[in-house]
Amino acid sequence: MFGWRNNQSQAANATPATPEPVRFGPYELGEQIGRGGAGFVFVAKHTETGEIVAIKTLRQHAAHDEQFDRRFMREMAILQKINHPHLLKYLDCGIDERGAYIVTEYIPRGTLSHVLQKHSMLPGSTVLQYAAQLARALDYLHTRAIVHRDIKPANIFLTNDHQIKLGDFGLALDSTKASLTVSGMTVGSVMYMSPEQIRGSKATSSSDLYSLGCVIYEMLYGVPPFKTSNPYGIMEMHLESDLRFPDERLVRKDASTDEARILIQELMQKSPESRPESARKVYERLTKLRPETTGETP
Ligand SMILES: Nc1ncnc2c1ncn2[C@@H]1O[C@H](COP(=O)(O)OP(=O)(O)O)[C@@H](O)[C@H]1O
Ligand SMILES: [Mg+2]
Fold this sequence. Notes:
The chain has nine helices and ten strands. By secondary structure, it is of the alpha+beta class. Helix 4 (124-142) packs antiparallel against helix 6, helix 4 (124-142) packs parallel to helix 8 (257-267) and helix 6 (205-221) packs antiparallel against helix 8 (257-267).
């Protein structure tokens, strides 16, 4: 898996050269596992400790683009100050001649997006269990004045023992740092974006709750709440359309399905004032409803 790049300059009849490992600082890159706006994500190995990690690199051309550069630095700054069982664990960062990189724990199972591609929809009890863990992660961030702004299945990781790890802080906004405030700019993925973000207003903790509602919807029903062929249509639906639920017969119905549906309705209110007061309230409510949804037990 490691040391996959061959030495291109070898003569045709020479003995094959030992593959030349690609390194970022002390990390040897393995397989590419992701690709995002600003760079690539690889599985990598620490050359001394042997630890297997995930490494996110800033693409060379992106490093010269102020917006990507700022996004990368913002992610680094936020990751360094957070530590929670339901947030992707930050390990290291650095800059070498190849560019900047961020190192986090590696989650072999991948993201909720991968899981939904495979299973399409999840049973209500699992949905509520994941929702509780996400609400806990959001409560941790929001009480530290951090708004994630990009809650979506591709940024939510799942371990083999069913623990949620929220990741990708590239768009997260730390309200305690005034210079990084971006206003009047629409960021995030339209499929999971709150009406106020679409309007270009500042995203608040309540905007993350709306996106959480969209993610819970997709976990339960296998499709995002609003879908049309173009992003503007989706934006319009977030702003104007009533929420609809698929036919009950098409759902993996269990004792928790109705509770999950009520929660979605509350979280996806168009007006932030009508949504639950905080991620903590959502978490507490889920815990009361169903003690096993605290996330402590898989
Ligand atoms: N720690 C990790 N473990 C496993 N896969 C990862 C990890 N970090 C990122 N990935 C994969 O790479 C993709 C992009 O990573 P992400 O942090 O969301 O970057 P971007 O800011 O470019 O969206 C993820 O959706 C996931 O598939
Ligand atoms: Mg992402």
